[in-house]
Amino acid sequence: MMKSGIVEHCFWAGKNVFLTGHTGFKGSWLSIWLQSMGARVTGYSLTPPTTPSLFELGNVEKILVESIIGDVTNLEMLRRSMQKANPDVIIHMAAQPLVRKSYEDPVQTYQTNVMGTVNVMEAARTCNSVRVILNVTTDKCYENQEWHWGYRESEPLGGFDPYSSSKACSELITSAYRRSFLESMNVRVATARAGNVIGGGDWAEDRLIPDLMRALTSGEQIQIRNPDAIRPWQHVLEPLSGYLLLCQQLYLVGEEYAQAWNFGPQENDARSVEWIVNQMISKWSSEHPGYQVIKQDYKHEANMLKLDCSKAMQELNWTPRWTLDRALDATIQWLEEYLKGRDIIELCKHQLAEYEAESSLSLRSFRMDL
Questions:
Q1: Do the domain assignments include residue 2?
Q2: Cβ neighbours of residue 40 under 8 Å, at least 6 residues apart?
Protein backbone atom coordinates (compact mmCIF):
# COMPACT_ATOMS: atom_id res chain seq x y z
CA MET A 1 0.00 0.00 0.00
CA MET A 2 1.49 3.32 -1.12
CA LYS A 3 2.10 5.70 1.78
CA SER A 4 0.87 9.01 0.36
CA GLY A 5 1.82 11.15 3.35
CA ILE A 6 -1.47 12.98 2.83
CA VAL A 7 -4.65 12.71 4.88
CA GLU A 8 -7.10 11.16 2.39
CA HIS A 9 -10.60 12.64 2.44
CA CYS A 10 -11.94 9.67 0.52
CA PHE A 11 -10.79 7.31 3.25
CA TRP A 12 -12.51 9.20 6.05
CA ALA A 13 -15.76 9.92 4.19
CA GLY A 14 -18.49 7.82 5.78
CA LYS A 15 -16.26 6.33 8.50
CA ASN A 16 -17.77 6.09 11.99
CA VAL A 17 -15.30 7.62 14.43
CA PHE A 18 -15.61 7.49 18.22
CA LEU A 19 -13.53 10.34 19.65
CA THR A 20 -12.93 10.75 23.37
CA GLY A 21 -11.89 14.18 24.59
CA HIS A 22 -13.75 15.93 21.76
CA THR A 23 -14.54 19.03 23.83
CA GLY A 24 -10.87 19.88 24.42
CA PHE A 25 -8.58 22.01 22.28
CA LYS A 26 -7.09 19.21 20.17
CA GLY A 27 -10.35 17.27 20.21
CA SER A 28 -12.31 20.21 18.82
CA TRP A 29 -9.81 20.75 16.00
CA LEU A 30 -9.89 17.03 15.17
CA SER A 31 -13.70 16.98 15.23
CA ILE A 32 -13.81 19.82 12.73
CA TRP A 33 -11.23 18.17 10.47
CA LEU A 34 -12.97 14.78 10.51
CA GLN A 35 -16.39 16.29 9.84
CA SER A 36 -15.00 18.37 6.96
CA MET A 37 -13.90 15.10 5.30
CA GLY A 38 -17.30 13.46 5.73
CA ALA A 39 -16.58 11.29 8.77
CA ARG A 40 -19.44 10.54 11.16
CA VAL A 41 -18.05 11.59 14.54
CA THR A 42 -19.44 10.65 17.94
CA GLY A 43 -17.73 12.55 20.73
CA TYR A 44 -17.44 11.41 24.34
CA SER A 45 -15.96 13.77 26.90
CA LEU A 46 -16.46 15.89 29.97
CA THR A 47 -17.76 19.42 29.50
CA PRO A 48 -15.27 21.83 27.88
CA PRO A 49 -12.32 22.34 30.23
CA THR A 50 -12.11 26.12 29.77
CA THR A 51 -14.31 29.19 29.35
CA PRO A 52 -14.21 30.29 26.63
CA SER A 53 -13.55 27.13 24.63
CA LEU A 54 -13.12 26.33 20.97
CA PHE A 55 -15.82 23.67 21.32
CA GLU A 56 -18.49 26.11 22.54
CA LEU A 57 -17.47 29.15 20.47
CA GLY A 58 -17.47 27.03 17.32
CA ASN A 59 -20.67 25.22 18.27
CA VAL A 60 -18.80 22.03 17.40
CA GLU A 61 -21.58 19.90 18.86
CA LYS A 62 -23.78 20.75 15.87
CA ILE A 63 -21.40 19.16 13.34
CA LEU A 64 -21.20 15.82 15.16
CA VAL A 65 -23.46 12.79 14.93
CA GLU A 66 -23.67 12.97 18.72
CA SER A 67 -21.85 14.79 21.49
CA ILE A 68 -21.95 12.78 24.72
CA ILE A 69 -20.96 14.44 27.97
CA GLY A 70 -19.49 11.57 29.93
CA ASP A 71 -16.48 10.48 31.94
CA VAL A 72 -14.08 7.82 30.66
CA THR A 73 -13.88 6.52 34.23
CA ASN A 74 -17.54 5.44 33.88
CA LEU A 75 -17.13 2.10 32.12
CA GLU A 76 -20.82 1.27 31.68
CA MET A 77 -21.72 4.63 30.17
CA LEU A 78 -18.66 4.50 27.93
CA ARG A 79 -19.50 0.97 26.76
CA ARG A 80 -23.12 1.87 25.93
CA SER A 81 -22.07 5.02 24.08
CA MET A 82 -19.43 3.19 22.06
CA GLN A 83 -21.77 0.35 21.12
CA LYS A 84 -24.38 2.86 19.93
CA ALA A 85 -21.81 4.68 17.79
CA ASN A 86 -20.74 1.42 16.10
CA PRO A 87 -17.29 2.87 15.32
CA ASP A 88 -14.80 1.81 12.68
CA VAL A 89 -12.10 3.89 14.36
CA ILE A 90 -11.62 4.90 18.00
CA ILE A 91 -9.34 7.83 18.81
CA HIS A 92 -8.77 8.19 22.53
CA MET A 93 -7.73 11.71 23.53
CA ALA A 94 -9.62 12.24 26.81
CA ALA A 95 -7.10 13.01 29.56
CA GLN A 96 -6.05 15.20 32.42
CA PRO A 97 -3.39 16.90 30.26
CA LEU A 98 -1.50 19.29 32.56
CA VAL A 99 1.72 18.56 34.44
CA ARG A 100 1.23 21.16 37.16
CA LYS A 101 -2.40 20.19 37.78
CA SER A 102 -1.25 16.59 38.28
CA TYR A 103 0.70 17.72 41.33
CA GLU A 104 -2.46 19.28 42.77
CA ASP A 105 -4.71 16.30 42.06
CA PRO A 106 -2.69 13.14 41.40
CA VAL A 107 -5.58 10.78 42.17
CA GLN A 108 -7.85 12.31 39.53
CA THR A 109 -4.94 12.37 37.08
CA TYR A 110 -4.32 8.63 37.50
CA GLN A 111 -8.04 7.80 37.49
CA THR A 112 -8.55 9.60 34.18
CA ASN A 113 -5.32 8.74 32.39
CA VAL A 114 -4.87 5.17 33.60
CA MET A 115 -8.34 3.76 34.29
CA GLY A 116 -9.76 5.85 31.46
CA THR A 117 -7.46 4.01 29.06
CA VAL A 118 -8.41 0.65 30.58
CA ASN A 119 -12.09 1.49 30.13
CA VAL A 120 -11.69 2.55 26.50
CA MET A 121 -9.96 -0.73 25.71
CA GLU A 122 -12.55 -2.73 27.66
CA ALA A 123 -15.45 -0.98 25.91
CA ALA A 124 -13.81 -1.54 22.53
CA ARG A 125 -13.76 -5.29 23.17
CA THR A 126 -17.57 -5.27 23.08
CA CYS A 127 -17.81 -3.52 19.67
CA ASN A 128 -17.49 -5.87 16.71
CA SER A 129 -17.31 -2.93 14.31
CA VAL A 130 -13.96 -1.61 15.58
CA ARG A 131 -10.97 -1.99 13.26
CA VAL A 132 -8.56 0.63 14.64
CA ILE A 133 -7.81 2.14 18.06
CA LEU A 134 -5.39 5.04 18.50
CA ASN A 135 -4.43 6.08 22.02
CA VAL A 136 -2.98 9.59 22.09
CA THR A 137 -0.47 9.92 24.93
CA THR A 138 2.41 12.44 25.11
CA ASP A 139 6.11 13.03 24.58
CA LYS A 140 6.38 13.25 28.37
CA CYS A 141 5.85 9.49 28.73
CA TYR A 142 9.62 8.96 28.31
CA GLU A 143 11.97 8.68 31.28
CA ASN A 144 13.46 12.13 30.85
CA GLN A 145 17.28 12.21 30.90
CA GLU A 146 17.61 15.90 29.87
CA TRP A 147 19.27 14.73 26.66
CA HIS A 148 20.05 17.19 23.86
CA TRP A 149 18.83 14.69 21.27
CA GLY A 150 15.36 13.39 20.58
CA TYR A 151 13.75 10.40 22.24
CA ARG A 152 12.95 7.43 20.04
CA GLU A 153 9.97 5.16 20.46
CA SER A 154 12.22 2.43 21.87
CA GLU A 155 13.44 4.57 24.79
CA PRO A 156 12.37 3.58 28.34
CA LEU A 157 9.07 4.94 29.62
CA GLY A 158 8.84 6.76 32.92
CA GLY A 159 7.79 10.04 34.47
CA PHE A 160 8.87 12.23 37.37
CA ASP A 161 5.45 13.85 37.88
CA PRO A 162 2.02 12.17 38.13
CA TYR A 163 0.95 13.33 34.65
CA SER A 164 4.02 11.95 32.86
CA SER A 165 3.90 8.76 34.90
CA SER A 166 0.18 8.26 34.18
CA LYS A 167 0.80 8.55 30.45
CA ALA A 168 3.63 6.03 30.61
CA CYS A 169 1.14 3.73 32.37
CA SER A 170 -1.36 4.39 29.58
CA GLU A 171 1.23 3.25 27.03
CA LEU A 172 1.84 0.01 28.94
CA ILE A 173 -1.90 -0.64 29.26
CA THR A 174 -2.36 -0.17 25.53
CA SER A 175 0.44 -2.63 24.78
CA ALA A 176 -1.01 -5.22 27.16
CA TYR A 177 -4.52 -4.96 25.72
CA ARG A 178 -3.17 -5.13 22.19
CA ARG A 179 -1.33 -8.37 22.83
CA SER A 180 -3.75 -9.97 25.30
CA PHE A 181 -7.08 -9.28 23.63
CA LEU A 182 -7.28 -7.00 20.61
CA GLU A 183 -4.82 -8.63 18.18
CA SER A 184 -6.90 -11.82 18.25
CA MET A 185 -9.99 -9.72 17.41
CA ASN A 186 -8.19 -8.26 14.35
CA VAL A 187 -8.24 -4.79 15.95
CA ARG A 188 -5.13 -2.73 15.17
CA VAL A 189 -3.97 -0.65 18.16
CA ALA A 190 -1.31 2.08 18.22
CA THR A 191 -0.18 4.96 20.41
CA ALA A 192 0.87 8.47 19.40
CA ARG A 193 3.30 10.66 21.31
CA ALA A 194 3.19 14.33 20.33
CA GLY A 195 5.10 17.40 21.40
CA ASN A 196 3.73 20.69 22.73
CA VAL A 197 0.92 21.89 20.49
CA ILE A 198 -0.03 25.49 19.79
CA GLY A 199 -2.77 27.09 17.75
CA GLY A 200 -5.89 29.18 17.85
CA GLY A 201 -8.63 28.27 20.29
CA ASP A 202 -6.54 27.11 23.24
CA TRP A 203 -7.54 28.78 26.50
CA ALA A 204 -6.04 26.25 28.93
CA GLU A 205 -4.71 27.60 32.21
CA ASP A 206 -1.05 27.34 33.12
CA ARG A 207 0.07 26.71 29.53
CA LEU A 208 2.46 29.04 27.71
CA ILE A 209 0.64 30.00 24.51
CA PRO A 210 -2.80 30.53 26.14
CA ASP A 211 -1.13 32.60 28.87
CA LEU A 212 0.59 34.61 26.14
CA MET A 213 -2.70 35.11 24.30
CA ARG A 214 -4.39 36.42 27.42
CA ALA A 215 -1.54 38.80 28.17
CA LEU A 216 -1.34 40.08 24.58
CA THR A 217 -5.06 40.81 24.34
CA SER A 218 -5.22 42.44 27.79
CA GLY A 219 -2.01 44.44 27.36
CA GLU A 220 -0.64 43.03 30.61
CA GLN A 221 2.95 41.99 31.16
CA ILE A 222 3.58 38.32 30.40
CA GLN A 223 4.78 36.16 33.28
CA ILE A 224 6.88 33.08 32.59
CA ARG A 225 8.30 30.43 34.92
CA ASN A 226 11.05 28.61 33.01
CA PRO A 227 12.51 30.83 30.24
CA ASP A 228 15.25 28.36 29.34
CA ALA A 229 13.02 25.26 29.11
CA ILE A 230 13.12 23.75 25.61
CA ARG A 231 10.09 21.98 24.12
CA PRO A 232 9.18 20.47 20.71
CA TRP A 233 6.61 23.13 19.75
CA GLN A 234 4.30 22.45 16.78
CA HIS A 235 0.99 23.64 15.39
CA VAL A 236 -1.94 21.49 16.48
CA LEU A 237 -2.62 20.37 12.90
CA GLU A 238 0.80 18.69 12.67
CA PRO A 239 0.21 15.86 15.16
CA LEU A 240 -3.44 15.59 14.13
CA SER A 241 -2.32 14.90 10.57
CA GLY A 242 -0.03 12.20 11.97
CA TYR A 243 -2.88 10.61 13.91
CA LEU A 244 -5.07 10.51 10.83
CA LEU A 245 -2.31 9.10 8.62
CA LEU A 246 -1.54 6.44 11.20
CA CYS A 247 -5.20 5.42 11.45
CA GLN A 248 -5.36 5.14 7.66
CA GLN A 249 -2.37 2.80 7.56
CA LEU A 250 -3.63 0.74 10.48
CA TYR A 251 -6.96 0.27 8.73
CA LEU A 252 -5.67 -0.32 5.19
CA VAL A 253 -2.42 -2.20 5.82
CA GLY A 254 -2.65 -3.63 9.28
CA GLU A 255 -0.78 -4.92 12.25
CA GLU A 256 2.70 -3.76 11.22
CA TYR A 257 1.64 -0.21 12.16
CA ALA A 258 0.32 -1.27 15.58
CA GLN A 259 3.17 0.38 17.49
CA ALA A 260 4.13 3.60 19.27
CA TRP A 261 4.80 6.65 17.08
CA ASN A 262 6.36 10.08 17.71
CA PHE A 263 4.97 13.20 16.05
CA GLY A 264 7.03 16.31 16.65
CA PRO A 265 8.60 19.27 14.83
CA GLN A 266 11.86 19.47 12.95
CA GLU A 267 14.82 19.50 15.32
CA ASN A 268 15.54 23.21 14.87
CA ASP A 269 11.97 24.03 15.96
CA ALA A 270 12.58 22.76 19.49
CA ARG A 271 12.92 26.19 21.08
CA SER A 272 13.09 27.78 24.51
CA VAL A 273 10.15 29.39 26.27
CA GLU A 274 11.91 32.76 26.12
CA TRP A 275 12.36 32.46 22.33
CA ILE A 276 8.65 31.74 21.88
CA VAL A 277 7.66 34.71 24.04
CA ASN A 278 9.90 37.13 22.16
CA GLN A 279 8.62 35.90 18.79
CA MET A 280 4.99 36.24 19.80
CA ILE A 281 5.50 39.76 21.14
CA SER A 282 7.28 40.80 17.93
CA LYS A 283 4.44 39.40 15.80
CA TRP A 284 1.65 41.04 17.78
CA SER A 285 0.05 44.01 16.05
CA SER A 286 0.30 46.51 18.93
CA GLU A 287 2.77 47.61 21.59
CA HIS A 288 3.23 45.31 24.55
CA PRO A 289 5.02 45.75 27.92
CA GLY A 290 7.03 42.52 27.55
CA TYR A 291 7.55 39.80 30.10
CA GLN A 292 9.00 39.02 33.51
CA VAL A 293 10.32 35.79 35.00
CA ILE A 294 8.46 34.80 38.15
CA LYS A 295 9.40 32.44 40.95
CA GLN A 296 6.69 30.09 42.22
CA ASP A 297 6.50 27.07 44.51
CA TYR A 298 8.92 24.57 43.03
CA LYS A 299 7.29 21.84 41.00
CA HIS A 300 9.64 19.78 38.88
CA GLU A 301 9.23 20.16 35.11
CA ALA A 302 11.63 18.80 32.51
CA ASN A 303 14.01 21.40 31.12
CA MET A 304 14.99 19.66 27.85
CA LEU A 305 12.62 17.57 25.76
CA LYS A 306 12.93 16.63 22.09
CA LEU A 307 11.46 13.90 19.89
CA ASP A 308 13.06 11.81 17.16
CA CYS A 309 10.34 11.41 14.53
CA SER A 310 12.38 9.59 11.91
CA LYS A 311 10.20 6.48 12.16
CA ALA A 312 7.02 8.38 11.26
CA MET A 313 8.85 10.20 8.48
CA GLN A 314 10.11 6.98 6.91
CA GLU A 315 7.28 4.55 7.62
CA LEU A 316 4.25 6.87 7.30
CA ASN A 317 5.75 9.43 4.92
CA TRP A 318 4.68 12.00 7.52
CA THR A 319 6.72 15.11 8.05
CA PRO A 320 6.10 18.49 9.72
CA ARG A 321 4.74 20.85 7.08
CA TRP A 322 4.69 24.15 8.98
CA THR A 323 7.81 25.61 10.52
CA LEU A 324 7.49 26.93 14.06
CA ASP A 325 7.53 30.47 12.68
CA ARG A 326 4.61 29.59 10.37
CA ALA A 327 2.79 27.97 13.30
CA LEU A 328 3.16 31.12 15.38
CA ASP A 329 1.86 33.22 12.47
CA ALA A 330 -1.19 30.95 12.16
CA THR A 331 -1.84 31.20 15.90
CA ILE A 332 -1.65 35.01 15.87
CA GLN A 333 -3.83 35.16 12.74
CA TRP A 334 -6.47 32.95 14.36
CA LEU A 335 -6.59 35.17 17.45
CA GLU A 336 -6.82 38.38 15.44
CA GLU A 337 -9.64 36.99 13.30
CA TYR A 338 -11.45 35.72 16.39
CA LEU A 339 -11.24 39.18 17.98
CA LYS A 340 -12.82 40.61 14.82
CA GLY A 341 -15.82 38.34 15.32
CA ARG A 342 -15.19 35.87 12.52
CA ASP A 343 -17.21 32.64 12.47
CA ILE A 344 -15.12 30.11 14.38
CA ILE A 345 -15.84 27.01 12.30
CA GLU A 346 -15.21 28.98 9.11
CA LEU A 347 -11.93 30.26 10.55
CA CYS A 348 -10.75 26.77 11.54
CA LYS A 349 -11.73 25.28 8.20
CA HIS A 350 -9.91 28.10 6.40
CA GLN A 351 -6.70 27.29 8.28
CA LEU A 352 -7.27 23.59 7.64
CA ALA A 353 -7.53 24.28 3.92
CA GLU A 354 -4.32 26.32 4.04
CA TYR A 355 -2.52 23.55 5.89
CA GLU A 356 -3.68 20.82 3.50
CA ALA A 357 -2.81 22.89 0.44
CA GLU A 358 0.66 23.71 1.76
CA SER A 359 1.14 20.07 2.80
CA SER A 360 0.44 18.88 -0.74
CA LEU A 361 2.87 21.41 -2.22
CA SER A 362 5.51 20.55 0.38
CA LEU A 363 5.22 16.83 -0.27
CA ARG A 364 5.40 17.23 -4.04
CA SER A 365 8.52 19.38 -3.65
CA PHE A 366 10.05 16.79 -1.33
CA ARG A 367 9.44 13.99 -3.86
CA MET A 368 10.94 16.07 -6.70
CA ASP A 369 14.07 16.63 -4.59
CA LEU A 370 14.36 12.85 -4.19
A1: no
A2: 14, 15, 16, 17, 65
